[in-house]
Design brief:
- By secondary structure, this protein is of the alpha/beta class.
- The chain is 42% helix and 15% strand.
- It is built from 13 helices and 12 strands.
- Helix 4 runs parallel beside helix 5, helix 11 runs parallel beside helix 13 and helix 12 crosses helix 13.
């Protein structure tokens, strides 16, 4: 129909550029999910879910947290998470995206400045667009650029609160933020440091707390941990000073006007956090996988990601990345091509994600298949 012609044209343009997306059911060895500890499909969580339902825990919340949807399981999870992560309080959201949307659209106020690493997640950007504060990016991981931007803001007469937004472990590059240096800059400038631990929670830190554990007790640090990656469930937890939790409950539209996560989900997240804390061997097993992959894939990946479970193989051209991913899929490996705008133009890549859903032998086989696929592509 003519009224939809603009959408057809845009989809055709994406297709011609090798950037058209489609939903694909996972098939083959898992090298694409964020289920880093293999909990999403685990018998442990499955059995807990059955027991919880049998005990009467509801599978639906019935409403927003302020209108009949606040359950004991939400309160128990938040109290436990605050204690486990060393914070004053916690608030549970249905997804990490919703948590970031609420965070950046609610806390920074008119006259404030949000300084964000240029590679922070899209959900952070979307929250900033809905917010009241001025926003600026600083060069990825560059503390000098961050400091210069703070100084420029103050010289220009800026008197508001400065909010510094970073990820502890970046999802597309697998490198770490310089958290200690960021915390020093935040404290020296009376700023608030916001750390997104989405890809580090469960994988790093004692008890799976992530990479920000040493900073959690500082009153100028806010941490977001998603629950649908290494923890194997879904949702997002923000830990913070209690005054900010109360402010969210009164002012965060993404919280106030959303149906609450199911009590069953809150219960499973609670148990998943406990399970990861009590089973440090899960981290050890994943680190063993990482060591095998670094031995076989290290030369194909940026050195800055050393030690993480995310292996970005930069291809460059969008269509070539899609072709190599397709060839690996045909060989039984669930590998996906990541293209702009998710990553910068010219950096289309294969994002290889290591999980406990695969074996050491699977990693070796993938490395061999990837080498063969690249050789064939170079020869073409």
């Amino acid at each position: 129909m003519p009224r939809f012609e603009p959408f057809h044209r845009q989809l055709d343009a994406l297709d011609n550029a090798g950037r058209k997306r489609a939903l694909v059911t996972p098939v083959g060895k898992d090298f694409s999910s964020n289920d880093y500890l293999g909990l999403a499909r685990s018998s442990y969580l499955k059995e807990l879910a059955h027991k919880a339902l049998d005990s009467g825990i509801a599978h639906g919340s019935g409403g927003s947290r302020l209108l009949g949807g606040n359950h004991l399981q939400h309160e128990a999870l938040e109290a436990f998470a605050a204690g486990h992560y060393g914070a004053e309080s916690a608030l549970f959201f249905s997804t990490g995206y919703a948590a970031n949307l609420a965070l950046f659209s609610t806390l920074p106020q008119t006259g404030d400045l949000v300084l964000h690493d240029e590679l922070v997640h899209a959900s952070s950007h979307d929250g900033m667009k809905l917010g009241r504060a001025e926003t600026q990016s600083f060069r990825h991981g560059d503390l000098t650029d961050l400091t210069d931007r703070i100084a420029a803001y103050r010289r220009a007469g800026g008197t508001g609160t400065i909010w510094i937004a970073v990820e502890s472990l970046y999802s597309m590059d697998g490198d770490r933020a310089p958290l200690a240096g960021l915390a020093e800059i935040a404290s020296a400038n009376d700023a608030v440091l916001i750390i997104d631990e989405a890809h580090a929670v469960g994988v790093f830190g004692k008890g799976g707390v992530g990479l920000s554990g040493a900073l959690e007790n500082q009153d100028n640090v806010i941490v977001l941990r998603t629950c649908g990656k290494a923890l194997g469930v879904e949702g997002g937890l923000i830990t913070m000073p209690v005054v900010l939790r109360n402010f969210f409950i009164n002012r965060a539209r993404a919280f106030i006007f959303s149906t609450a996560p199911s009590p069953l989900t809150a219960h499973l997240v609670h148990k998943a956090i406990e399970y990861v804390a009590e089973n440090q061997s899960l981290q050890t097993q994943l680190q063993d996988h990482i060591a095998v992959a670094e031995n076989r894939l290290g030369t194909l990946c940026p050195s800055s990601r050393a030690g993480s479970q995310i292996f970005p193989v930069i291809i460059g051209e969008d269509s070539v990345a899609v072709q190599i991913a397709a060839s690996l899929q045909q060989k039984g490996f669930d590998v996906r091509a990541i293209r702009p705008p998710t990553v910068p133009a010219g950096t289309a890549r294969l994002r290889l994600s290591l999980t406990l859903n695969v074996s050491r032998e699977d990693i070796t086989a993938l490395a061999d298949a990837l080498t063969e696929a690249q050789e064939m592509e170079n020869a073409a």
